[in-house]
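Annotated sample (chain length 234).
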Amino acid sequence: MHTPITLITGAAKGLGFETARLLAQRGHHVLLGARDVERGEAAASELRAYGHVKFIPLDVTSVASIQAAEQRIQQEHGCLDVLINNAAILLDHYQAAAETTEEQLLQSLQTNVIGVHAMIRAFAALLKKSDKARVVNVSSGAGQLSDMLGSVWAPAYQISKTALNAVTRIWATEFQSDGIPVNSVCPGWCRTEMGGDGATRSPEEGAAGIVWLADEAARDSTGRFFRDREEISW
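Output written by the structure step:
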């Protein structure tokens, strides 16, 4: 039986790390992507207690880094079954729009949006070689337009997550004829380096919805936004 080959970006810590742990436990061959080599190697080493985990150097803001990762996975595995776009940055926490600089917005879009598009585009051919391919984009309820009026606490981050949801819809359309589902997921407010110690959810609780989309969700569910296995509004 084919072991799922799963690539997770930004997986050396937080939700990415916990997602890697849970999927390794489920028997996935996890490729742990991270731009910090030392931290990535240490994370992969720790997670090998749970299953097959291998570190892949990967900076989603670098075309050369993405290409190198794609070539390595092509050579070593020949296909990719699951792509989880988890890498993200939050630069303008608790800032008003007037305080959020153009540079903060540009950097946020580069990682949280353009990086995701670049990853899906680069790995499209490998995903199409799998008959069980899935793409999961880790988004946030902070990007929901339906709830944004009166609830702005990180403008650049929120704008980037709204745009990420558009990336999800566009690639879901692109992959319809290939039968590859592409979905967004909100993990909720989790106790990670980004979320802080005061967050209401554990990393495991946040990762559960990501794992569900990567491993269990119906394959005909695509172009949708989920939290806790339930569809939520854009």
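Annotation: Residues 102-128 form the longest helix (27 residues).
Annotation: The chain has a mean pLDDT of 95.
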